[in-house]
Amino acid sequence: MAITLVTLRIAPSAGSDEITFYRSAEYDALLEWVKMGRFILALAATDRDELTLLCLQSPDEMRSQIEDLPLVAVGLATFDIRQVMSLKMDDEVPDILQ
User: Fold this and answer.
1) pLDDT given at position 14
2) Which residues lie below 8 Å from residue 47, measured CB to CB, with a gap of 6+?
């Protein structure tokens, strides 16, 4: 199963009026994603305007979906996509940490 982290950030050049205009549509789109099971966890940063989503689709599948989000589509938000994996924490040091 693919696990992907998607981080959405408000673009530095975005004006507050523009963001306010699109924010409701963005939230509605993300609610639809939840209903479809596109992501299972959302983490909002407390010190900046950033949202990280834990998704169960590949980075390629997520990229096309993210580009259609209202704030991203109009250039008011940027995004970063990373494929990740679960890491079993036990006495063995996994190769990925060496």
Assistant:
1) 84
2) none
Distance CA(55)–CA(89), nearest Å, equals 21
CATH node for 3-84: 3.30.70.1060
* Nearest one of 32, 31, 27, 54 to 43, comparing CA atoms: 54
User: Six-digit token pair at 58?
Assistant: 């590949």
36 Rama class: left (phi>0) / alpha (psi -120 to 50) / beta: alpha
pTM for the complete prediction?
A: 0.83
Domain ranges of the chain: 3-84
Which residues lie below 8 Å from residue 43, measured CB to CB, with a gap of 6+?
Answer: 51, 52, 53, 54
Are the C-beta atoms of 54 and 3 separated by less than 8 Å?
Answer: yes
